[in-house]
Amino acid sequence: MKVGFIGAGRAGCSLGRYFADKAGQAGMQVAGYYSIMEEEAKWAAAYTGSAYFHTPEEVLAAVDTLIISTPDGAVKGVWESISKENLEGRIICHLSGSLSSDVFSGIEAHGAYPLSIHPMFAFSSRESVYEQLQEVCFTLEGAPQAVTVWQRIFELTGNPAEVIRKECKPAYHAAASILSNHVVGVLSMGYQLLERCGFSEEAARRFTATLVRENVERVIENGCVQALTGPIERGDLETVQKHLAVLEESEKEIYLTCGKELLRLAEQKNPERDYESMMAILRHDV
User: Fold this and answer.
1) Which of 153, 172, 184, 219 has the fewest CB within 10 Å, making it most exposed?
2) Domain 171-282 = CATH 1.10.1040
3) What is the spatial distance between Cα 224 and Cα 213, in angstroms, rounded to a whole number?
4) DSSP H or E run through 139
5) Contact assessment for residue 12 and residue 50, using Cβ atoms and an 8 Å cutoff
6) Residue whose C-alpha is closest to residue 140's, from 102, 169, 111, 103
7) What are the residues facing 67 on neighbouring strands?
8) Segment 190-233, tens digit of pLDDT
9) By three-state DSSP, how is residue 147 classified?
């Protein structure tokens, strides 16, 4: 299996290096990169020990799987711009979490196989995170032939790979964003409240590090219901009212929205308890 990339950003470079390191184990070879940013493609080629290609058609001719590793908004344009003369038997793939393989419209007429591969991972760098991919799970969606090939590759690299339906891609990516980006937003709100109490930004993060880490670990280990603690779960009406009294309107909106989800979990954890008064507070009825 020869793999090539159009696009040399953080995801493309990291995956290319990971695949290059796994080449012997997974029976694959990274052929190289093309990008409209020539210097980025040359850097990626050197980083992965592969070739720099001058045109999309050059990289396509050299590979069995072409991975379009551009931003989501560019995938369709790249697909529409490349020549369709040399597609037969090849897998054409993108790395978007939200787009399905349907973005490769008309691909079946050219004898090629559409695929989307998405790593459940936030790429913060193009050169320093590839080793972390050993622990990453991937989702696959597309033509059965392509999915089967890449399931086998990920079996060989040791990465879990789940197959999902194309209509699930938006909800799947929303889940990834909530579990990654939106969590950052909630943490930021908590840190800002501590800063109002006199903590520096750095001190706020350091002071709460154990609390944050342990909570996430409990969720991963035991699930959200069993990990749940706090005043909403306890039914502590007075404490929740004190919280709401000191929050600004934008903060209060986040608190109430998250609080309603926590209450749903609390009702599962403690079905014998009456949470009607707590719900009234969270609905802002009192």
Assistant:
1) 184
2) yes
3) 14
4) strand 138-142
5) no
6) 169
7) 5, 93
8) 999 999 999 999 999 999 999 999 999 999 999 999 999 999 99
9) helix
CA distance from start to end of the chain: 63
Instruction: Quickly name the fold that domain 2-164 has.
Output: Rossmann fold (3.40.50)
Give the separation between CA 28 and CA 131, rounded to whole angstroms: 17
157-182: per-residue pLDDT in tens? 999 999 999 999 999 999 999 999 99
Using the structure block, give the residue that is written with the tokens 């470079």. 13
Query: One fold for both 2-164 and 171-282?
Result: no
* Structure-token match 């592969």, residue found: 50
* 47 contacts 127 by C-beta, under 8 angstroms: yes
d(CA 169, CA 150): 18
Q: Are 240 and 278 in contact (CB under 8 A)?
A: yes
Residue 164, φ and ψ in degrees, nearest 5: -125, 160
Q: What is the mean pLDDT of each run of 10 residues along the chain (286 residues)?
A: 96 96 93 96 97 96 97 96 93 96 96 97 89 95 97 96 96 94 95 97 96 96 96 96 95 96 97 96 78
CB 283 within 8 A of CB 277: no
The model's pTM: 0.86
